[in-house]
Amino acid sequence: METRTPLVERIGIYAFVGLGFVALTGCGGGDPVAPGGSEPMDLAAELVAQGLQDPVHLTSPPSDDRLFVVEQLGRIRIIESDGTLLATPFLDITNRVRCCGEQGLLSVAFHPMYDSNGWFYVNYTDFAGATTVERFRVSANPDVADDNSGKLILSVDQPFSNHNGGLNVFGPDGMLYIGLGDGGAAADPLGNGQNLDTLLGSILRIDVDGGDPYRIPADNPFITVPGARGEIWAYGLRNPWRFSFDRQTGQLFIADVGQAQWEEVNRASASEGGINYGWRVMEGAHCFGGGGCDQSELTLPIFEYNHQEGCSITGGHVYRGSAIPGLSGRYFYADYCQQWVRSLEIQGSSVEVHDSGVGGLGPVTSFGEDTAGELYFLTEGGRVYRLIGA
Ligand SMILES: [Ca+2]
Question: Cα of 324 to ligand 1 centre, how many Å?
Fold first, then answer.
């Protein structure tokens, strides 16, 4: 496998080298579901913008019809509602970001009150390799931020360069959720996934309004557990590169990138804290390393696919837009290597896979959602596409 593509390491390239395709005998969990379920719906990808450099995240401030695209080197670019990509970056912090591989500027989250306070929170790798969450502020010009307004919110040392997670998202509860991978290398050598003493291998939940630089919410699940980090909302994660909240139901969808065999999608209600998603006891719905394992405290994914079908999941969003009637409630995701885009139709415990028909546009690094709920995806070739009906 080629390693020159910037994000490919998050697929666990080390695993291919170190473990090969070790046969992991399942201990529960089913076979992957074949794509292309009933009632195929033709979708297409409409080119919105091109010429971006390693785009890895797309979002918008609340009630704002501009799209903000994160370039991994350390810039945020604006696409106006007419599709114009502004030449001047909204933010340029290339002078404090270590890029690339799995490192770099990885996401931005706009404060729910951005309209009045102008605050946004970036997640990047600093020159020491640490995951850094920093708050910046817009300038008097709404298309340009103040590059010198930075205020450090959180810094987390990273033992290895890969598996940085890297997503900042404000939840429906107004809290800032931050994804962190297991620290990297392969097979979680430090056991961070199952360790509540470290912020690694977890999704954090902090209140950026209740303290300086933040407060740990009183209803976080481990706040009273001795030795545990109170910031942790969920754990047992390998590299939750992308997760999202369903804007209609508030449900949290976490796509966790697998080691050598299984890519997975997890789901929880917005109020369900403290979930252990299993890594590295399990990879997907299978005991990691084969044999048996104690699954009693673990929450298994609602869906998985194996490495015959792909090699690295790029998590997306539940579609809640209005442009494609009939798609409402579908969870979209992609595989970075096989370059397909699929969706899950979830009815109770049944999950049906639908092939979108969109693919071959290059590795999909991330999805994005605009304020109207329409979905976008970003390709490593520097393009932004909108999902539309064919
Ligand atoms: Ca898991």
Answer: 31
Question: Which tokens belong to 12?
Answer: 């666990």
Q: How far is the CA of 128 from the centre of ligand 1 (A)?
A: 29
pLDDT tens-digit series, residues 240-293: 999 999 999 999 999 999 999 999 999 999 999 999 999 999 999 999 988 899
Report whether 322 contacts 295 (CB < 8 A): no
Q: How far is the CA of 115 from the centre of ligand 1 (A)?
A: 37
Separation of 315 CA from ligand 1 center, angstroms?
Answer: 14
Measured CA to CA, the distance from residue 34 to residue 316 in angstroms comes to 19
Measure 116 CA to ligand 1 centroid, in angstroms: 39
Does a cis peptide bond (omega within 30 degrees of 0) precede residue 172?
no
Fill in the amino acid letter for 350: S
pTM of the predicted protein model: 0.91
Q: What are phi and psi of 366, to 5 degrees?
A: -170, 160
> In the chain, what are the domains?
8-38+56-313 (2.120.10.30)
Question: Ligand 1 centre from 82 Cα, in Å?
Answer: 40
Give distance in angstroms: CA of 147 to centre of ligand 1.
38
Nearest 5°: the CA angle 302, 306, 307 is 150
What are the residues whose beta carbons fall under 8 Å from the beta carbon of 108, sequence distance 6 or more? 57, 59, 68, 70, 76, 91, 120, 121, 122, 123, 168
CB-CB contact of 66 with 80 (8 Å): yes
What's the 316 CA to ligand 1 centre distance in angstroms? Answer: 17
CB 331 within 8 A of CB 265: yes
DSSP assignment string, 108-144: EEE-TTHHHH-EEEEEEE-TTS-EEEEEEEE-SSTT-
- Look at residues 343, 287, 352 and name the one whose alpha carbon lies nearest to residue 314: 343
Residue 300 CA to ligand 1 centre (angstroms): 6
Q: What is the DSSP letter of 94?
A: G
Write the pLDDT tens digit of every residue in 165-174: 999 999 999 9
How many angstroms is it from 108 CA to the middle of ligand 1? 25
* Ligand 1: centre distance to CA 200 (Å): 15
Instruction: Find where tokens 């998050």 sit.
Output: 10
* Distance (Å) from CA 257 to ligand 1 centroid: 9
